[in-house]
Amino acid sequence: MRAAVLNAIGDEALDLRDDVTTTDPGPHEVRIRVRASGICHSDLSAMDGTLPALAPGVVGHEGAGEVLEIGSAVEHLAPGDHVTVSFVPPCGACPSCLRGEPNLCSVHAIAAFTSPRFRLGEQQLFGYAGLGTFAEEVVVPAPGAIKVDPDVPFETAALVACGVLTGVGAVLNTAKVEPGSTVVVIGCGGVGISVIQGARLAGAAVIVAVDPVTGKHEIAKRFGATHATTPDGLEEIKQQVTAMEGFDYAFDVVGHPGTIRSAWDNARRGGSVVIVGAGRGDAMVQFSAQELFLHDKKVLGSFYGSAHVHRDTGRMLKFWRAGLLDLDGMISKRLGFDDINTGLGVLREGHTDVIRQVVTIG
User: Fold this and answer.
1) C-alpha dihedral sign at 229, 235, 238, 243
2) What is the model's pTM?
């Protein structure tokens, strides 16, 4: 089958092959025919070492497809079911799951991440984030396959699998944005646009989108931003819309020390600073002990949008059906398998108005 293989961390291009096979599904696993996969910035972060990844392996983690085969112990899925995939398959029984934090479950995720998911001849290949959706087929833990209605387009479902759950979830689950509040969103890629849509869903009165790419400003407004600016213009807008008090909620969707610090500086005293962007393990952010004490701001990490994936996938699709969440409009480009490296290159450049690229796999 076809698969996009990362031969070594640091490679800028994936090896597009047609001779890869999956491992056999175990009793608690399913084999899925991947139909669509989004190209997410986290895929680039896996390739360059910003985020943990094992190589050689197959990249891709935002996908949807059709169940081909189920393990002997799988009861909630059947061949032919349409599913999205999750890189955090909740076990339902660990302390994180029992506390109502299934996005922090590591039981299945660690095993899937560190176990080979593919083969290339006699060579074993890993799947990024325990998945590897830049392949025609993938074997995943059964709790990581979330059933969706068959009328949901695969490309729409794929967006929900990562970017939409992460962004909208950061607003509704992590921050719990209140109606009438003021929000600033730093970074307007696919996840940032999802944060903006989540803020609109939550009833925020002011939503300021911040991105150095001016081509993204009108796009951000189309998805719900009330204002849009480059980083240099943020101070002026803050004066206009908050009387210099600062925003109730500041979302960093970049993950760089400078943007995290900007989110902190632009949140009001007592406001919430929500870290959505995935940064490097060695990237350090500085705060003084005094400002942490005096300003009473809440610094909230938001991993995978604090999502309950089996609950929130259906929730996002209900919003979509009701016309409250524009998923189809987020797709800037539709690509074929042979275009994956081109799509990664577009994302790597950064200076474009592309929101999300979706690859049709099969």
Assistant:
1) negative
2) 0.95
